[in-house]
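Project standup — Tuesday

K.O.: blocked on the structure for the chain from last sprint. Re-posting the sequence here as requested.
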Amino acid sequence: MFKVSLSRVAALALVAGLGFAGTVSNAAAQTLEKIKEAGVMRVGVMGEQAPWGSIDASGQNIGYDVDVAQLMAKELGVKVEFVANAVAARIPNLLTNKVDVQMAVMGMYPDRAKVVQFSKPYAGLKIILLSSAKNKIETIEDARNLRIGVPRGAAQDKAITALLGDSPNIRRFDDDSSNIQALVSGQVDAIGGNTTYKINLDRAAPGNDFEQKLVFNEQWMGATTRPGDAEMNGWLNAFIDKIKANGELQKISEKWLDAPLPTFPESLEGVPFAAK
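H.V.: unblocked you, prediction finished:
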């Protein structure tokens, strides 16, 4: 699955290089101007991954990424239109102009950076393995014979598959909520997730005994734009610097994660923060 995922990314890169060859570099550079002219910024977010992006009882988008996007729109003096994304559709939706900026928990990884442009990081989490306290798991090998759920194509899918190979015990689901529900219902014995999964597990199954077993890597999230869009990327980096400095990003972190902002890296190998 890990190789398949990379192949998918390579295919997208080819599409970006061929199908959009005459439009990406030119049209993308005008994204900021087009947003201002339209008076609307279309932002990709998750629709069912609290606390990053979800829908409340009144049908409104809420979450960490949503609050950051609302500040972005306010800074530009435009309205914001949220576009809910499935995990596998995030990059295609950006490259095919369905969104202006992709913020659906976009982990900053070198394979993705070959296809899209990341800003500086504005959020972080850890990619982890969760399971019942009854299961003794100290290394990934301890989980080899367990049924492990992952969201198809997500960072945890890649991490676990890289370690275990394409094991038949890895069960892939279409989204995070299905992955969490599989653990709660006993369809799987463990799930690859992130540090905010525990918040959602406690809501879905109060009093559960699920706990963090392993940490695979620390993931940083950036606001993602189409390649070559130096103007939009530059604006986003300046915006992130501003909301970090004035405390607005800190308030969002405390509101949704009940935690202070982490110390963001100044650079990530293979992931440039600035468009050339």
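K.O.: great, moving the ticket to review. The radius of gyration is 19 Å. The chain is about 40% helix and 25% strand.
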